[in-house]
Task: inverse folding
């Protein structure tokens, strides 16, 4: 039996056939699903799904790309949601520098002139970057504090922000555990996380032919330090790449990881299920 430890079942992509999606997951041996909150609205939706189905559990959180629109009091509302018995972690939370203003298509943004100065407007772009990074950092730390207070672990989103994410997380190591979801880094980075007591999670990216770092990591990483996920509706594994992803495809992720590690799918299912049950405090299967 497998667990999809990170899916977005509340997203409108699943509105036409959500019940059939859950049924297909069951038929593929994916018997438990963790629906992930990214805003207050999606966190509430994840809880509603968990309430409606004994196989579904929820996390609550504010995704770093969503905090610009979040109210300053959002953490207080998250704290109320955290009391729900089917909330199994905080997140996804973290830092994401991939879509900062300086990485937009604005003319000359972040560029230097031939005379060594900066183009007009670049100072504003730099300030806008700093403001977004600061707001992300505030909400990330607030969610880490909430996790410690509620004795929950955290689901972390990290993109183009590795060092800042680690710097923020390190003071919490020993007080909580984190999983870096949709892990696409190197084995050295995974080893750094594991040495701090944290975990990684593999998605359909592991099935992509050019994902060499992920392949190497999946081969070398110790048992008991990783989970499986889909991040659906995103990142469908081969041969469905580019199509809508769904929890049933956790099996394809497990098959690829098993092949890379020279193990059976049953062994991978048993190991990752046990690890996820402990991390999320789920009932044993």
Result:
């Amino acid at each position: 039996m497998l667990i999809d430890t990170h899916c977005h079942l509340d997203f409108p992509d699943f509105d036409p056939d959500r019940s059939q999606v859950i049924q297909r997951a069951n038929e593929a041996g994916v018997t438990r699903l963790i629906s992930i909150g990214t805003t207050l609205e999606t966190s509430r939706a994840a809880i509603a799904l968990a309430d409606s189905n004994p196989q579904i559990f929820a996390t609550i959180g504010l995704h770093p790309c969503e905090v610009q629109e979040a109210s300053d009091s959002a953490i207080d509302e998250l704290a109320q949601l955290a009391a729900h018995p089917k909330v199994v972690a905080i997140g996804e939370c973290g830092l994401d520098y991939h879509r900062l203003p300086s990485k937009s298509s604005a003319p000359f943004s972040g560029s230097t002139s031939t005379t060594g100065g900066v183009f007009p407007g670049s100072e504003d772009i730099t300030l806008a970057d700093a403001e977004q990074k600061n707001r992300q950092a505030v909400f990330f730390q607030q969610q880490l504090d909430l996790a410690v207070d509620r004795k929950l672990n955290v689901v972390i989103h990290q993109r183009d922000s590795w060092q800042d994410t680690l710097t923020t997380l390190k003071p919490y190591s020993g007080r909580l555990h984190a999983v870096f979801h949709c892990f696409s880094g190197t084995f050295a980075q995974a080893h750094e996380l594991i040495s701090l007591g944290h975990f990684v999670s593999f998605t359909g990216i592991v099935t992509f032919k050019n994902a060499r770092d992920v392949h190497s990591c999946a081969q070398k990483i110790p048992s008991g330090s990783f989970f499986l996920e889909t991040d659906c509706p995103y990142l469908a594994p081969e041969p469905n790449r580019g199509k809508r992803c769904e929890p049933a495809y956790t099996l394809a992720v497990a098959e690829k990881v098993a092949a890379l590690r020279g193990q059976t799918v049953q062994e991978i299912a048993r190991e990752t299920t046990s690890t996820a049950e402990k991390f999320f405090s789920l009932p044993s299967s």
User: Anything to note?
Assistant: The mean pLDDT is 93. Residues 109 and 124 are 9 Å apart (CA to CA). The longest strand covers residues 87-96. The chain has one domain: 2-99+126-280.
